[in-house]
Each structure stands twice: as C-alpha cells, then as structure tokens.
Amino acid sequence: MVRLAGRRMRATGKEASQVERWRGLSEVPADWGRSVVTIGVFDGVHRGHQRIVGRTGQVAAGLGLPVVVVTFAPHPDEVIRPGSHPPLLCSPARRATLLGGLGADAVCLLEFTRDFSMLTPAEFARTVLSGALHSAAVVVGDNFRFGHRAAGDIGVLAALGDKLDFITEGVPLVVGEERPISSSAIRAMLAEGDVAGAAADLGRPHRVEGVVVPGHRRGRALGFPTANLSAAPHAAIPADGVYAGWLVRTGHLDEDTARWPAAISVGSNPTFDGTDRVVEAYALDRDDLDLYGAGVGVDFATRLRGMERFGSPAELGAQMRRDVDRARAIVGGADPPPRAGAAAK
After folding, report:
1. Rounded to whole angstroms, how far apart are CA atoms 168 and 154?
2. Smallest Cα–Cα separation from 278: which of 332, 230, 224, 234?
3. How far apart are the C-alpha atoms of 337 and 259, rounded to whole Å?
4. Full-model pTM
C-alpha cells in the first residue's frame, strides 16, 4: 500500500490476494483514514455484487479514498434462524480474494453473532461506518437492509449519513434475462445441476473448495486417478452427476497456483453401493499429480450427465472414457476461466 495525504491507497499492480483482510473492527489500523464503504454478505460475489463493488470503486476514485468492503460470517440466516444456514457459494477467504480482484483495498469480515444482530441501524452506522471506518461515502444495493429485525433501509442509511458525515448511494440490482441476479437463485440452479446458468450469473464458473483426501482408489483402478475433495462445511455442491470443468490448486490466500482441465463426478458412486456423497475430479490425461493434503478448487463448466448405476465396473469404465472424451472436447482446449486474485486429480 502507498500513502497519499494520510490515506491508504492500493499501489498500482498489486495482486488481489494482497487486499488487506481484517477479522473484526479491532484489526482496522488505528491510523486508518476516511474510506468509501460497501456492505453485504456478498456470497458468490456474483455479477450483481460486482456492479455494487464497481460503483463503490468509482466513488472512491472520485474522492481519492480507499475502498473497504464490510462482509459477514457466519451467514446471518444461521444466527437469526438457527439451522437454516444456506449452502455457501464461496468461502470467506475466496470472497476476500474475489473482492480484491474487483478493486477492494480492504475486506473487513465481521463475526455475525446474536448480540451483533441486535444492533439498531443507528448503532451499526455509528460503530462500524463512522467510528471504525470513518466512512466518507457508503454504497449499497438498493434493496439493502440492516440493523435489528432489518429495520434500516437505504432511506434510513441516508438519514444517518447526514448526521454522521457520509453520503449514501444505492445501486440497482443487476437484472438477467428474466430476473434479478441473486445468491439464492444461483444456489437453486446448482441444486438442479445447472452449472452453466450459475456461471452466467456469477461471471465465472462455480467453484467448490476443499482439501484432497484419500479415497477408495476406484478411479485409479479404472485408469482415471481422481482427486477426492473434502469440501468445506456448507459448500454449495451441484446436483449429483458428471461435469466438465477444471481442477485448481490454490495457495494460502486462495490464489490459483495451477490449473488442469478435468472431468468431475459428484455423487455416492452407486455402482459400488456407495453411501457418502463425494466430489472427485480427474485431471485429463494426468496420472502424475500428487495432491494429497493440498488445498484445491473444482470449477464447474457444464453438466455432462446425471449420476447412474452401472451393471459392472467394466461398464462404468467404458462410460468414464466417453465422459472424459466429452470433457476434453469442452474444456481440454478451452481458455481457462478468469483467475481469482492474480484467480487438482
């Protein structure tokens, strides 16, 4: 970061993974100056979110100030209605990387607790926006709600800004072909296996993240060694089936370090009477990857077929060869999707 007139601004050429990451207001630097702030869960950082963050960046550039994104974990639904935690489109770490790629100088992850949910709109604005982040402007989606029982809307925020010396701007929702873009709609598409539709609304392929763990090695016995993914809790895993996509090795700040075209299986392996739902990916034409214990992502491009039970391992192997051929035709020579930040068997 470089400092201009006492304000922190991202130096030209910084990678998105170098965005400042604060876990709570206590990590905001004591000398942090005025900011332009946007607020939201931003799960998935989809095209609607991208529009809001982009507008925040425009306002910040006009004022010569840094961009701070305020977001939350766990998902507020889980705290307000325990047991209702929605499937997550991305982890908090990937969310920060994606937001950094959109121009955020800092991402402040606030722990959403029962006590936090009880803050009134005025208390939230005074504590977070004015007191900690010294907001000069706040940019939010035009359906933004905040405070206890979602009592505050953009009108309330604007009135509070008049008192606390920040301006307020609402950004209209991005409208797709038939509907507004939303995280809940993307989750519904993934539940149906429509990963292509989800990618259109996200602006990139949907990713499931996790760590590679040992499996039953059935794929290797059939000639297709797969990376078995231990997915993060509450991950939004697409419907059971076989997909074309990419296997990605990730670094400690969720930046991509390697990428391979892949055929991906989601399901319980019914041919072998499996009961556990697993995500596994075969990096096309690679049998030399040692990824045990590595952090990886699986990016979904398109669905090839549903999950099926075959009469024998030989029948399954023959179908896997057809699946791999189709996946190779779709992603084998295709340009990779956009990288998160800079953007695995």
Report:
1. 8
2. 230
3. 10
4. 0.86
Burial of 308 by CB count in 10 Å (0-12 exposed, 13-18 middle, 19+ buried)?
A: middle
Contact at 8 Å (CB) between 129 and 37? Answer: yes
Bond into 74 cis (ω within 30):
yes
The owner of tokens 């995500």 is: 279
For domain 2-171, the CATH superfamily is: HUPs (3.40.50.620)
- Kindly list the domain boundaries of the chain, sorted by start residue: 2-171, 199-332
Say which residues have a Cβ less than 8 Å from residue 41's Cβ, sequence separation at least 6.
71, 72, 75, 76, 183
How many Cβ atoms are within 10 Å of 314's Cβ, its own excluded? 10
- Distance (Å, rounded) from C-alpha 15 to C-alpha 18? 5
**Three-state secondary-structure class, residue 20:** strand
Candidate CATH numbers 3.30.70.100, 2.40.30.30, 3.30.2350.10, 3.40.50.40; the one for domain 199-332: 2.40.30.30
Write the pLDDT tens digit of every residue in 175-218.
666 668 899 999 999 999 999 999 999 999 999 999 998 866 66
Give tens-digit pLDDT for 263-302: 999 997 765 555 578 999 999 988 888 888 889 999 999 9
**Helix 183-191 / helix 195-202 crossing angle, nearest 10 deg:** 160
Between 156 and 77, the more confident residue is 156
Number of neighbouring beta carbons within 10 Å of residue 116: 17
Burial 167-194, CB ≥16 within 10 A → b, else e = ebbbbebbeeeeeebbbebbbebbeebb
Residue partners of 82: CB distance under 8 A and separation at least 6:
none
